Amino acid sequence: MAPKAQDELFAGGGETGALMRSIDWSRTPLGPVEDWPQSLRTCVRVLLTSRQPMFVWWGESLVNLYNDAYRAILGGKHPQAMGQPAAQVWREIWEQIQPRAVGAIEANEGTYDEALLLIMERNGYPEETYYTFSYSPVPDDDGRPNGIFCANTEDTRRIVGERQTALQRDLAARTGDARTVDEACELSAQAFATDPRDLPFALLYESDVGDDHARLCAASGIAEGHAAAPVMCALEGATWPLGEAMRTHAPQIVDCTALPGELPVAAWDVPPRQAVVLPVPHSGNAARNAWFVAALNPYRLLDVDYLAFLHLVAGQVGASISNAQAYEDERRRAEALAELDRAKTAFFSNISHEFRTPLTLLLAPVEESLRNDAQALIGEDLVSVHRNAQRLLRLVNALLDFSRIEAGRVEARYVPVALGPFTAELASMFRSATEKAGLRLDVDVPALSSPVHVDRDMWEKIVLNLLSNAFKFTFQGGIRVALRELPDDVELVVEDTGIGIAQEEVPRLFERFHRVQDARARTHEGSGIGLALVLELVKMHGGRIEAHSAPGVGTRFTVTIPRGTAHLAPGRIGEAIPDAMPGTAAASYVQEAERWLDATDPSPAPASAHERARGTILLADDNADMRDYVRRLLEGDGYAVRTVGNGNDALELALASPPDLVLTDVMMPGLDGFGLTAALREDAQTRNLPIVMLSARAGEDARAEGVEGGADDYLVKPFSAKELLARVSLQIERAQRRTEVERQRAELRGLFEQAPACIALLRGDAHVFELANPPYLKLFGGRQILGKPVREALPELEGQPFFTLLDQVLRTGTPYVGTETSVYMDATNTGRIEERVFNFLYQPIRESGSGEVDSILVFAYEVTEAVLARRRVESLMQQLTVADQRKDEFLAMLAHELRNPLAPVRNAIALLQTQGGTDERTRYLLDVLQRQTANLGRLVNDLLDVSRITRGLIEIDRARVDLRSVVDRAMESVQSAMDDKRHDVVCIVPGRPAVVDGDPVRLEQVLVNLLTNACKYTDPGGRITVELRLRESVVELSVRDDGIGMLPATIAHVFTLFSQAERGLDRAQGGLGIGLTVVRSLVELHGGSVEARSDGLGKGTEFAVTLPLAQSQFDGQLRAPIPERGAMRPQRVLVVDDNVDAARTLAHLLEDFGHHVQVAHDGDAALAMAHSTVPELVLLDIGLPGMNGYEVVRRLREDPVTRDATVVAVTGYGQGADRQRTLAAGFDQHLVKPVATDQLQALFAA
């Protein structure tokens, strides 16, 4: 290409355009410019005219062409990169970008990367960079891709900035709530760990000003204790230049390659090469220093931005440390104020107790004396008032002394004193008290070489306070007082073998208002300022005091004061006082100590009958004067009083012999009033003892605390005698009432526990088990149900009606009674559900005040066994009923089946008898057949009657009946049987009617059965007597024989079904054993009774039937006798029966009577024959094949030709229901097989 054309192609473009124009492209792989394809030329023009960083890679070697904007990306590679292969220009990142370039050309598809990390070496060092770019394939003139066009954007500053901002944000969020310096450092380290690229590892150190080592507070990215992260780091050591950083307040650069140990690589592939040590600025405690050690990103230079970031991080850490430090300081101040407040509260509580106790002992006796006529204090009251006034004065003086000391207004007077004799005299004043207490007092106080300048009153208070303190806390061993002369000082030692003090309490011994909690002492009295006052008094002498103690060993106080006067204010030095003695205050110390001893031995309680009637009171108070005063008051009111001086003795006495009331002070040594109350409430035998507390603490809060602590009453000092006695009396009366209520409650609970029923009480809407007696708990396998809602305690009842019923009873207040209710429950607590049956009651219980239902009483009896037994019985009864019904059905069927063959037999006999002309032997045989057929008929009837009786279906057709006619007909019925056995039958009947309301047929059946029975069991030729006797309102019909008789055991069940006499070879006619059962049933249906009598075997038997006479013997008409047979008009008769023999014999018999008879054996034939012959009378069997008798009669009634015929049912079924059904079906009459001849005659006669 001509130079002009080349200049036009590379026109413009700034420095890179000029660079392109200066290159001889023919010497490059691209060749002469004029040979460049048009697409390449277009790309060159685009990039040279664009301000966006762009480049083109062209040809096989991907020759690099770029614009001015791209120079910043190349850095030191420009201008050499122009026209060079891309692989040579970007050798350090070619492994990452080469696959993208090749892929774009070969696949002819562009690529896109956003904020891709590339470690470039464009300025002589590896550098972390981020780029967003795309490779777009550029086609050659032949259309195939031969180059890449790329426009890109550098994101390095954005990515790094966002990362660092995120760290600062997380750091602020994490450390915002830090409450301690260590917590702030630890949370900061956790935030550092979120940015391992900028902070591969980081350390936070701290030290107090003046220390030569710093303590590692926290670390991230490196283990604490690593060689490069020592736990304790020397400020001037070789590891980190902490001292230099703090002195210069400037960052210190450290070469990490010189650090010991292998450093972690963090998020990069190489360990950090440099680290920075920065002092942490903070506005907190100026006595503390802190440092931030940060390992640097190995792919970034420590430029201004990076250093500014590190300063920001250090500043945030410093702020969090300052905030945490401020919080710690504030917390310590708050704790100090709270501790001071607690101390003041304790002080005022103690001082209130110290003032109120003597005030009570001053005011109460004075008030009592003012109520007396003499209005004078005498005896113990006067002594007590004086002693407590002195004590009150001493307390006030102590407070004033302390107040003046704190205000700097104490006017001390230091005079030369022979300190040895003066101290010895002070110590010796306690000898009587120590000896009385069984302690040893050693006074080792030699005379000193020269007087010592002290304030006598102050020294007296120092010695007496220390001795009083030792005596108060020493119970065994002794107390030692020693005075030693040192070269420049004088040393006073007060040492005891008392209870000792825990090491953590020793530094606080001299704090104002501080008291060692739960320390065993002779008394709880004291203001809590004694040792604090001693400390201040010693300081005023220019001296010091130390304490050494061990629990169980004792305590030693050492007071050291300088000799001479150089340490004293000249204006406070005075002259010696000759023959000075201890002040009067010293005696009060000793007197008070001796009063402490009165608390050691409990006093016995008087036991007079009067005192026992009022009750026994246990009084616990560590103040002897208060004990004596209260004891005198109570004893004067008739109580027996036991007194003790501390809570432990009170507890021991109360447990050994419980009193009626405990009266206790709140503040006592060892076990205080609250501890005593808690211990008494924990023991079963003293749990309900009334307890009254005495306390100097006034106000509702104090009273509430006492009551919450378990006391029944709380009496504030000072109190009047009248108020104390009233409170004590009230509490004892309440306790007595409570005891009575508890006794009654125990009795009720005993009844509740021993009740055989299952009882439980359910409380509230959730039905929580409040009470349940043992039987109820046993129901559910001993499950723990008390205190649980019923749905939780008994989940298996869900889905059954009981939860709903409980809700209903609670809502409506209406009781619910359940009878034999099945409950499906887990009775063994094994998960196995079984059925149990209960009778139960849900009784609502109303709250006494509101009347609302708030609980439900459950009262239940288990009836499972009874119900199951009844169910078994019912099942057996049902089976028995079914069996009995089947038996009855069988008997009815049997009777029917027996009647069917009887009918033709009886008809045949009747035919033979009507023919006449037979010889005597034939007539005899016919008579035998007739008798036996009649017997068989009676047996069949008895079987049917038994079936009807057992099912309650027997019927009687009542009418006015003269029993004389019944006797006549019965005798006719059995006459032939009697004649056969040649029985002598005697019949005795009255001359007047014996009328009863009865069924003549059934009554005749009764008498026939009795006569048959007598005939059966009476030997041939025996006598049978039938007697009818009238008595007032009844008639007695008896059948008496002289037969085989009966034993009493036989008589007992002679009327039982199927019962019969024992069969023998001479008694072949045992019978079915149903005749007498029928007799009893029929007699009872008539409202009568039957009785069997016998004097034994071989002495005969009598059966007596008793029936009620009709109301009027002549009221109404007697039933007409069976009509005699008269002349019968010949009639047209149709006999229908499927039994051919029965039908033919009946037809022959009727023909002998002169009737015209037709025979049919089924329904269809009967209907056809009736329509053609038009019979006047139809004798129709019911059980026909095909069409039964009911259908036949219905069609006969529908046919106009036969509708007026008389249709008579002739069947083996003769029960009342059978008769009703036949009449309802259209039959005119109902005859039962076998039909007797006289029945037929009566039928035709009618």
At the fold tier of CATH, the topology name of the largest domain is Heat Shock Protein 90
Number of domains: 7
Report the count of strand segments: 40
Q: Regarding CATH, which class of the largest domain? A: Alpha Beta
Low-confidence spans: 604-612, 1063-1070, 1119-1126
Sheet of most strands = 6 strands, antiparallel
- Report the average pLDDT across residues: 84
Layout of SSEs?
Blueprint: H1 3-9, H2 14-22, H3 38-48, E1 54-58, E2 63-66, H4 71-74, H5 86-89, H6 94-107, E3 111-120, E4 127-139, E5 145-154, H7 156-175, H8 181-192, E6 202-208, E7 213-220, E8 232-234, H9 242-248, E9 252-255, E10 274-279, E11 288-295, H10 304-371, H11 379-407, E12 415-417, H12 419-428, H13 431-436, E13 440-444, E14 452-454, H14 456-472, E15 478-485, E16 489-496, H15 530-540, E17 544-550, E18 554-562, H16 584-597, H17 609-614, E19 616-620, H18 624-636, E20 640-644, H19 647-656, E21 661-665, H20 673-682, E22 691-695, H21 700-708, E23 713-716, H22 721-754, E24 758-763, E25 768-772, H23 774-779, H24 790-793, H25 802-812, E26 816-825, E27 834-846, E28 853-862, H26 864-915, H27 920-950, E29 959-962, H28 963-980, E30 984-988, E31 995-998, H29 1000-1016, E32 1023-1031, E33 1034-1041, H30 1048-1052, H31 1075-1085, E34 1089-1093, E35 1102-1108, E36 1132-1136, H32 1140-1152, E37 1156-1160, H33 1163-1173, E38 1177-1180, H34 1189-1198, E39 1206-1211, H35 1216-1225, E40 1229-1232, H36 1237-1245
